Each structure stands twice: as C-alpha cells, then as structure tokens.
C-alpha cells in the first residue's frame, strides 16, 4: 500500500493540542482518599450467601448518612436517604454495590482432616496454587494453605507439572489432627483468600477489590454528596448479596425498591497489561472511571450514558466509555426488575481481576466517587 502524504493544516495541529490539553486537565484528586476504610472493607471475609460480616462493617460506617437502613430476606442492606430540598415526587436513584467476594464453601472433610471445597463465584484455577486461605467458622477463623493433590516438583513426572487441576482437586490443610478439624469445621463453612490489602504508589491492591470498591463508593459518594449540599432525588444504596453467583440479591432488592434509575457499581477489566492487544483493554489505568455501556447482562440507557458523560465534562472528571464482552453486574437487575428502570454502570478498571492481586488506580476510584456524588446532587 502506498504511503499516504498528508498536507499539514495549522488548524488540525491546534485542534489536537487543544484536545490533549483538555484531556490532561481532567483529573480526580486522590488527596484524602479514605484508604483505611477501603483496607478494612477488603479484609473482612464475605462470600456469596455469607456477607454478614461485610454488612456489619458497613452498618457501623454509615451512621447519620441515611434516613432508613434495613436488611432484606436475601441479606442485602437497603439504605435510603430522602431528598434534601426542592421539589415533589423525587426521582428514586438506586446504587447497587455487591458485598460478596468470590470464595469457597467446605464441601467435605476427609479422614485425615483435609478440607475439600466447592467454589462460590468464578475462579481461574491457575491462580489457586499454594494459596494462604482463611477458613471461617461460627466460633473462629483458621488460617490454612490450599494446594492441589499431587506430587511435589522433586518426584513429579513432566506432564504432571504442566497440568492445571480442576477446582475439585484442590484441598485445604489447617494444620490440625483430623478429630480436631472435625470438631471445629463443618460442611457449609466458608473460606476466602488470606492476603492483606496494600497501597502501592498510585495503586491499591487487594484480593477483594471486586467488589469492596463499590461498597466503598456506596459510602464515600454519599459522604461527598452531603458535602455538596442539597439534592432533589431520593438515594437508595443497596449493598447487595450473591452477585458473583448470578445477581441474586440485586434482583430481589430491585423488585422491592423499584427505582427510576439504577446505577450498577462494580469493577471492570483493565487489560492494559502485557500479553493483551489494545483493542481488548476495556479500560486503561489512570484514564478515569468506566462509563459502562454494555456487557453480557445488559445494554445501558443511551440517554443516561450521554447525561453522565456531559456531567463528567462539565465537572472535569476523567472517564472512559466501556464495553465488556463477557460478564455482568447488578445494574442489569435494577434495569430488568419489576416494570424496568433506566440503568447505566459506573465502574473502576481493575487489573488481574478475580485473583489475589487485583489492582486499581487511586485516581480512577476518586473519579468514580466524584461522578456519583455529582450525579446524585444534580439529577432532577
Ligand atoms: Zn463484581
């Protein structure tokens, strides 16, 4: 193909300079970001169906922010803040923030006291080798190690070394004799990965950013809203359960709340790392919150997408439009519950998703908080 010659027009250069300048000015301040809260949210264990500890932490945090707080039959925490100020028949805006992280249930305890597991949520078993875990029982938690059955490197055959075992081949050892294990752990107890959260330069890393990021946003965006002043909408933050196994808590909560607008708050893919072509990046770290248009569970309301985009530009909040080929989020449940609602997703790009090294950029988190607060403050 012949090389194309372009004629240099001064206008175009000026235009691209302006665009670059405009883009660079959009930034979200990470100053005063409440990372202590994010750390505590990321380190409290809670798998699908066992979110009670996460819920208790949130209840302790939200005092004074909402006019009513109730737990529904699925264990979702429904928090309502009435309109503050102008107008009758306030619009009901629902933020859906799931509390559950991917984890396991104990499915069997064998004669040697090893624990066998059943997954709750989607794991890539390539990430499960030699993991530290926390086995959560009624009376106390036990540290444990998770490994697949099989021979160690010294005595294993070459083909054994390249095989990726199925999840059901992994077991957990908590270091106690069989009779002690059977006294303390029951089938149906749950376990999570045992990894501390870490601030790392501009980044934050944890095993449960999906979706404790949204639990953080459900609290911090409303705190920011109270700083912005009055709002004419009614705000309902639903800290939902069982999202990782099919948006279950969001479905029942949305049916009860019947919002006018649903905002699905979640992490999304940030595939701006080696080995992935740029057309599959979904989001790029540091370029703002994800304005979530489509995934395999929903297609956002396009007018709402445009409205959030205009608001981001108006307030200089960095954003990036996103489409996710596979995967879903609670916004779909709000959109498709009862008689339906307008819905859009607000997301934070996360590298290495569904692993113990999930990573976000702090400025993207701040941008998501800021756009949520602005949206709630200005929606009519
Ligand atoms: Zn999630």
What would your notes on this structure say?
The chain folds into two domains: 241 residues, Aminopeptidase (3-Layer(aba) Sandwich), CATH 3.40.630; 91 residues, Peptidase M42, domain 2 (Elongation Factor Tu (Ef-tu), domain 3). It has 380 residues and is an alpha+beta fold. An eight-stranded mixed sheet has the order 1-2-12-3-13-16-14-15, sandwiched between helices. Strands 4-5-8-7-6-9 form a six-stranded antiparallel barrel. It has ten helices and 17 strands. The protein binds zinc ion. Zinc ion (ZN) binds next to helix 6 and strand 13.
Write the layout of secondary structure elements.
Blueprint lengths: L9 H16 L9 H9 L8 H10 L6 E4 L5 E5 L10 E7 L4 E7 L5 E6 L10 E6 L4 E8 L9 H5 L7 E4 L4 H7 L5 E4 L4 E3 L2 E4 L2 H20 L5 E7 L7 H10 L3 E9 L19 E6 L7 H13 L4 E5 L7 H6 L5 E9 L7 E4 H17 L2
Parallel strand pairs: 3-12, 3-13, 13-16, 14-15
Antiparallel strand pairs: 1-2, 2-12, 4-5, 4-9, 5-8, 6-7, 6-9, 7-8, 10-11, 11-17, 14-16
The structure holds zinc ion (ZN).
The site of zinc ion has 6 residues, from helix 6 and strand 13.
Task: Name the features.
single chain; 380 residues; alpha+beta; Aminopeptidase; Elongation Factor Tu (Ef-tu), domain 3; 2 domains; 8-stranded mixed sheet; 10 helices; 30% helix; disordered N terminus; binds zinc ion
Quick summary:
By secondary structure, the chain is an alpha+beta fold.
**N-end to C-end Cα span:** 54 Å
Strand order of the largest sheet: 1-2-12-3-13-16-14-15
Whole-number average pLDDT?
A: 93
Which spans have pLDDT < 50 for at least 5 consecutive residues?
A: 1-10
* Overall 3D shape: globular
CATH class label of the largest domain? Alpha Beta
Order of helices and strands: HHHEEEEEEEHEHEEEHEHEEHEHEEH
Radius of gyration: 23 Å
Q: What portion of the residues fall into strands of 2 or more residues?
A: 25-35%
CATH topology of the largest domain: Aminopeptidase
Structural class: alpha+beta
